[in-house]
Structure formats: structure tokens, C-alpha cells
Amino acid sequence: MSRPFSRHQPQQPLHRVNGRIRAREVRVIGVEGQQVGVLELPAALNLARAQGVDLVEVAPTAVPPVCRLVDYGKFKYELAKKERDSKKHQHANLVKEVQLSARIDPHDMGIKRNHAIGFLCEDMKVKVTLRFRGREMAHTEIGRQVVETFLKELEPWGHPDSPSKLIGRSINVMVSPHPKHKRAKNPNEEADKAAARAASAGRESGAPAPGSENGEVGKGRQNGHDVAAQNGQVAGGVPGGRVPTDAAEGEGLGHNPFSGISLPSE
Questions:
Q1: Which of 94, 118, 139, 148 has the alpha carbon at shortest distance from 262?
Q2: Which pLDDT tens digit goes with each residue over 112-157?
Q3: Considering the entire predicted model, what is its pTM?
Q4: CA–CA separation, 166 and 127 (whole Å)
Q5: Of 29, 49, 83, which residue sits at a domain end?
Q6: Can you give the residue range of the structural domain that contains 141?
């Protein structure tokens, strides 16, 4: 009985090496990069053995195929390193945009900051844009204060390429990442690792979550939510059921520069 056809074909090696080379004669490049000349395959293989290296086919479509005398392990390492460097340079050319507003909430500001930090830690530039709406153009100093506060929060991870500029109805500034050895660690990754460690420790100890007794905390919380929903109530009397939080939830950006300013409505 024949086997069913498989879509997953065995992976072919990136290069033909030594006995896998099929050509009758090859053009050989020496260990130091010098031209050795066109040799028959057995002679090229003997030369590789004599020098303690491999014969690697680097240009199979050439006539005759081009082969290098090189240690294949070292050759693969150099190729992988070049590929990583190429990807790094491509990443560095990427620009991510973070959009702010003149009336941004401190919590939203913290989220935008975390996004910008993540981009900078991946060696990407960040374009910070604040667009004024309607009559907010009469208070451009507020928008500048928001942008400057945002840039100050990014100082451990990046620096502005130039001072912020007001162009039309927008304030724009480009932020470039610091070199990896000079910038702070990504706090988002550190928080994820800490949460993972705490979860792992909890599973190993078998202890219930803090504040829970016999696993009933989730059930009680759910029942309380259902009762509040039936009575048409919300937590803290705030529409939408969101529990009020203090300005600290902005993660370092708790100060709201608009608290004492009332902008004209559009």
C-alpha cells in the first residue's frame, strides 16, 4: 500500500558540501579568497582534505559552479551573522507613530508611553504627533506641555532628533532609540517576566491567589457583579461600571496638565 502524499518535503541543505557536489569540474576559491582556478571535482576535494577544510558550493548556477575552500561550520555562522545584521538595519529604518491629543487622559498617556518604549527597545524610531482639534489651536502651549512631558518620560530609552515643531495643526517630533548598552531595560518585558514567575511559584506551591479562600473569590466577585447589574448599579456610582482610580494609573504620567484649564468647546 502506497503512502499518502505529504506536503512537507524534506528540507534541502542550503549548500552542497564535499561529496554532495554534482558538477564534474568547479571553479575553486581558496581559503584566503584567492582564485585557485578550475579543477575537476576529485582534485578539488583532495585539495580541501589536504588543507583540512570543506569544499562548499556557493554559486551553483555559474558555469562552472563556484566553490570555496572553507570550514563549513564557520561559513554558516558568518552567513547567519550577516543575516542578523541585515535584519537589524532594516528594523532601524522602521518608524512607528504614536499619536497624542491635547485632552489625553493620564491612563491613556501611560499606555502610549509603554508602546513607544516597546518600539524604542526594538531599535525603531518613534514619531510623536499631537494634533489640535477645533479651538484647541488657541492653546498650543498646552499641547507643547503634553509633548514635552511625554518626551521626558522616554529619556531612558530614546532622545528627540530635533526640538518639537508646530506644523499646521500638529506638533511633531522624531525620537531615536539610544544604543542598546546605554538605554534602560524594557519595563514591559520585566513586568511580564515577574508575572510569569509569580504564576509559576503559585502553581508549584498550590496556594490560592491572595485574598481568596477555597477558591470562592472569583465566584463571589461574579455574584456581586450580577447583583449590581440587576439593580442597575455600578461600582462607585460611576457610569460604565469602571471603578475610579487615581492619577497613578498613568504609570509615571499621573500629572494632568489640563486640570486647571478649561478649553472652549468646539
A1: 139
A2: 999 999 999 988 899 999 999 989 999 999 999 999 999 999 999 9
A3: 0.47
A4: 14
A5: 83
A6: 94-177
Q: Do the Cβ atoms of 153 and 250 come closer than 8 Å?
A: no
Whether 146 and 152 have beta carbons less than 8 Å apart is answered as: no
**Same-domain check for residues 108 and 162:** yes
Grid coordinates in use for 160? 528627540
User: Are the C-beta atoms of 142 and 114 separated by less than 8 Å?
Assistant: no
Nearest to 54 by CA among 80, 28, 25: 28
Who's near 160: CB < 8 A, 6+ residues apart?
151, 173, 174, 175, 176
Name, in order, each residue with C-beta under 8 angstroms of 86's C-beta and a sequence gap of 6 or more: none
Q: State the DSSP code for 69.
A: E
Q: In whole angstroms, give the CA distance from residue 36 to residue 196.
A: 57
Which of 146, 177, 208 finishes a domain?
Answer: 177
Residue with cell 575552500: 69
CATH number of residue 166's parent domain: 3.30.110.10
The number of domains in the chain is: 2
Nearest CA-CA partner of 26 in 34, 37, 18: 37
Tell me the per-residue pLDDT of 21-72, one tens digit each, with 9 for 90 and over: 888 999 999 888 889 889 999 999 999 999 999 999 999 998 899 999 999 8
Do 126 and 68 lie in one domain? The reply is no
Q: CA–CA separation, 155 vs 173, rounded Å?
A: 14
* Structural domain includes residue 215: no
